[in-house]
Known about the structure:
Elements: E1 2-10, H1 15-27, E2 34-37, H2 45-56, E3 60-63, H3 76-86, H4 97-113, E4 121-122, E5 144-146, E6 150-152, E7 159-161, E8 164-166, H5 172-187, E9 194-198, H6 208-217, E10 220-221
Parallel strand pairs: 1-2, 1-9, 1-10, 2-3, 4-5, 8-9
Antiparallel strand pairs: 5-6, 6-7
Amino acid sequence: MKAFVSIHDVMPNTITEVAELLEICHSFGLQRVTLLVVPGLDWQPAQINQLRQWQKMGYELAAHGWVHRCVTKKTFWHLLHGLILSRGVAEHLSLNPNEIVDLMQKSCNWFVKNGFDQPSLYVPPAWALGNISKRRLRNCGYTWVETLSGVVSPQTGQTRRLPLVGFEADTFTRELALRVYNNLVLWMPTNKPLRISIHPYDHKLKLRKSLRTFLQLCTQTLSYSEITV
Length: 229
């Protein structure tokens, strides 16, 4: 099984857990992992150096929002989304298109200012892109933007749909829903690569065994920079 493996929410306070997850991936022979970095936090020099080390080791760094939490007044849809899905981290949802573009560009610029390669991939927190057209995405500086359904090319407006599984189950309800959903995705006939989305504490939560099972099924991990539409 070919897969895009990504670790979300790479933050100053999750560096240890991210390192543990990379060790788990390495134990299954998976060398190509994408790290979704939240740039607008209190990054210390040692933590930034760790990100540089990971990039030198071949791990792809992607931009993942700015602060990964809502800082503006929430719309009704945003409140509902947070209650059901995102738990208040979908920082795009209450922003207008200009604010979304500014946030995405600010996130991209952080990488360049700190000496990293410019990220080719942007993943909005909770995959919630918000109220912005594909046309407006052209000015954001990314090759790909990931959503729940797949990846969007800002330059062409085309979407490549890719199946997705996740393991962030800290309650019985989430465990049941994700277990059923992941199994459906696994047994759905497709020749498309799978997206395996990992959050920093998934290896300690209720679906930790299932996470390892999916990683074990991977025969090849891919880089988002290789995607073509």
